[in-house]
Amino acid sequence: MQPNSTTSFTRWIVLLAALSGAVSVTLGAMAAHSLPTRLEKQGLDAVAIAKKVDQCDIGSKYQMAHALALLAIGLSGLANRSVFGKIAAILMLLGTVAFSGGLYSIVFANEIIHWSIVPIGGSLFILGWLSLAAASLQAKY
Fold this sequence. Notes:
Number of helices: 6
Mean pLDDT: 93
Strand content: under 5%
Largest sheet: none
């Protein structure tokens, strides 16, 4: 069977879901184990350290949830049967970059591109879930 744009898109969704899951586990483990010590060495107080660890943990949890959603979209073939399935996958990917990436940039770089990037990412997640709902209604089973 020759790969076409549909199978190629599905393959990308599954690949990106897997990589996103791996990053999520890595950063979640870092938040739980080495991040507090690293932040302490930077001279942060206990309150600031707890806040950054919490931000990293939240980013990791949301990233994992959406990595699993992407995996489900990819493996179910929903993106092949519905334009909304493709839109859902793209919105969830963009949401992960904005929401989790924004939180990670606050934690690790002590900077953020713009304060609104994290709430924009959350909005993209919501739109992704709504697109997934629309895809479930549109798809031919």
